[in-house]
Amino acid sequence: MFLKNTWYVACTPDEIAEKPLGRQICGERMVFYRGQDGKVSALEDFCPHRGAPLSLGFIDKGELVCGYHGLRMNPDGTCAGMTGQRVRAFPSIRSYPAVERYGFIWVWPGDAELADPARIHHLEWAESPDWAYGGGLYHIHCDYRLMIDNLMDLTHETYVHASSIGQAEIEESAPSTKTIGDEVVTSRHMENIKAPPFWAAALRGNGLADDVPCDRWQICRFTPPSHVLIEVGVAHAGKGGYHAPAESKASSIVVDFITPETETSIWYFWGMARNFKPNDEQLTATIREGQGKIFGEDLDMLEAQQRNLTENPGRKILKLNIDSGGVQSRVVLDRLLAAEAAERASRVAASAEAATAQAAAAG
Amino acid sequence: MFLKNTWYVACTPDEIAEKPLGRQICGERMVFYRGQDGKVSALEDFCPHRGAPLSLGFIDKGELVCGYHGLRMNPDGTCAGMTGQRVRAFPSIRSYPAVERYGFIWVWPGDAELADPARIHHLEWAESPDWAYGGGLYHIHCDYRLMIDNLMDLTHETYVHASSIGQAEIEESAPSTKTIGDEVVTSRHMENIKAPPFWAAALRGNGLADDVPCDRWQICRFTPPSHVLIEVGVAHAGKGGYHAPAESKASSIVVDFITPETETSIWYFWGMARNFKPNDEQLTATIREGQGKIFGEDLDMLEAQQRNLTENPGRKILKLNIDSGGVQSRVVLDRLLAAEAAERASRVAASAEAATAQAAAAG
Amino acid sequence: MFLKNTWYVACTPDEIAEKPLGRQICGERMVFYRGQDGKVSALEDFCPHRGAPLSLGFIDKGELVCGYHGLRMNPDGTCAGMTGQRVRAFPSIRSYPAVERYGFIWVWPGDAELADPARIHHLEWAESPDWAYGGGLYHIHCDYRLMIDNLMDLTHETYVHASSIGQAEIEESAPSTKTIGDEVVTSRHMENIKAPPFWAAALRGNGLADDVPCDRWQICRFTPPSHVLIEVGVAHAGKGGYHAPAESKASSIVVDFITPETETSIWYFWGMARNFKPNDEQLTATIREGQGKIFGEDLDMLEAQQRNLTENPGRKILKLNIDSGGVQSRVVLDRLLAAEAAERASRVAASAEAATAQAAAAG
Predict the structure, then answer these.
(1) What ipTM does the predicted assembly reach?
(2) How far, in whole angstroms, is CA C308 from its chain's centroid?
(3) Chains touching chain A at 3 or more Cβ pairs under 8 angstroms?
């Protein structure tokens, strides 16, 4: 169960730089490519000629060309041409709304006529020269909601990431969670603690002492369909914590875009945006490498958890206060999923009514 | 859906030189071995003692011996012996008609009493000293008919094999297709073209200039159950094309025997027979290596196409004029499949009738 | 179909030395660990918090701690604690009776209240200083009964283990099989034979001539649920065979504990116990290496046999006199499986009756 009338991150520009990219999203096999004028398009990954995946093809003069027999496609899913054939009567394939923004390609897997680029989640840090971003992509065999749970309850850092960002004070500090409209925010503040290795390095990277008591914060924000953006940081103790001035803290935004592939697998786009030393590319690379290693530690756990839940479908699991972030996120998702189903039903009914009226008028 | 009362290529002699070979053909697991007097036999790959695969056994004194407990088999599927046991009452296993001819082992997976070796496709080139042959085997996860389609529409060469045998003139020349009895022939002739790399090399290999305008031809012949033999070649332009004298052309026969393993996998025996420099073994090896590389380019495409078609079972695909070869081949196959089903039904009915008559006579 | 109210070997102490071990036994995923006071426990491998496998966790102060969010478990399946949470109301998970004895961890996958450690198969050799033991573990994709068949009919040695322990005299000597209560014994005695390579080495290892005629014996003992202990040995001919004095023979016990993982896969604990040179650790290592190689030869055959039987479910296989050991073992198993099913049914009925009586008394 995933929302379809919404924008998901589909891929990054480097993935379509050389050739088309085949990727399954929300159960649909799609091909992404950069065509005429550099515009990105998304089509069904199914050539109307013989069913070959278009993603095995190539781009020629801005057109996607099937790699089997050379049928050429337009970005709207109609056939553009084929040597020796008139393609006007060829069946079309589905085209998905796709937008390139903030350094990502976004796709709308639902009803195309509802797709509004203005609804793409605004990312301040992606447009400002004061910020730098680095990230990566993991393919994980788990329900996308297990990854939302993971990110909305950072007590797991103490166990899964013990050597980098985990520390006992995380689980000793109760989180506070609230839902505001479609957004869920779960916050945790720790005071007078020792910065764990990752953050000690970040303080040094920012030219600050790393061996003094610090305040630390984690503010996780879930927004539909499955984005989790987390404000994280440490400040020298007594300087105001989260509100401390820039010269007393190291802070950043953990970026998580979770795109369902199937009911039990995801494309997980992870990264970190920071507003200190934004032009230090070496620092960006170092942080990305460290974050990639840390975030990779979750993979085995999530896949093993998924296997256990799949094998025990009727089994209840606990919802503790630390799980509130994930629980409230699911409440938002369930509400939106119900709304999407209702909307779809009413559209079907309306079109049936229109057809009946038309038939009556004609009869 | 595959024909069963017909001859398929099962394996090549080198595959059974050292030990028995287990291979699934048309859904049936078989063991092939060379027994008494060097004669090749095919049996069910199932030891009547404890169900172990006989293909894990060995040959002793011309008998196939199970590698688990030593039951010895006769080529007709009866048990030949077992130390310390009287095997007369042992159940038999199925024996499949098998014939070694033309450098291949042929098997008949259907009703044994209908098997007639005279119906094995005659291969002129396999018996003549004027011809040389080299080939190989690929295991591919696709319906055998997708491979027939592939070989009966060579426009794919322009895309899949762009760097070796592909060229724009192929798709620019409309093919002509006709069905003659059970055979389907699709032909394409190109005139005054530049020989593509593979053929330029063949011209040089035959001592001919490779930089002059050429005529090129491709005559694909499908015969049941799934053989595709393709006459291909180039001649210096104006020398008569396909009918040019031997000293002005380089030509050969592309050999394709497609043996279904399951509904969605095949054993693909490919090769090339040529009637120039037949004793040049180095040339045979060079051609085989080149052809193996080229034909290997189809594998990913066919398997990806199969996956797309499996996931979209109801979906129609196009049948263009270039697809006529495959389409007409399927018409032949469907006709023969229906005939085989009818024949089977009438045999069942006849045997039921005989049983009733016998019962009445006895009653 | 496997017995559940019985003791199986689950693992060896080295497998839980560093961290918890996740292992599926009789279809149930379990975690084994050494906790407080070094006592071994077995729990469901399912954290009651979020369903993560506990086997990905660690041991802290004798408690099993989930590696995801730190829930701590007691050996009885109740929750021991979690930072910031009161765990009294947390649901428990299943605890399995587990006992460490004879160098193995034994587990009882059935009704815990029926588990009696006294019913663990007594292993004389595991407690006596006159004996040494070495062994290993294989994971094999076959029904556990196929492995019982394998071990209760050693004629396969002639074929599968031809270069080490096989010899023609095995299959030439008819075995004798009998059932005594729940035990099945199949014996084979060979006289005046040449010791095969493995036994020639054992004679030399025991300081005896290896090039003189020998008597050889194999006495296979099946006991439920799936233990096969085999007395094997050779003696210089004419010294009394199986009853020969220690200085004229080399003998040992082949140890086979077969633990079902699923209906078609097993954990196979194999080894050899010997009562000569028990303190020669180099000899133990040499024998283990040799036995491991020999026993590894069965794997492919058993998995291929399983595949053949799975594909041909209705097919009958033969039960010859050499198969009596396996056949009689299955008779014992079937009787015990029926008894276990009847016992379970009567317990269900009794508890339903008690509930009715209670309701009537309350009503």
Answers:
(1) 0.92
(2) 24
(3) B, C
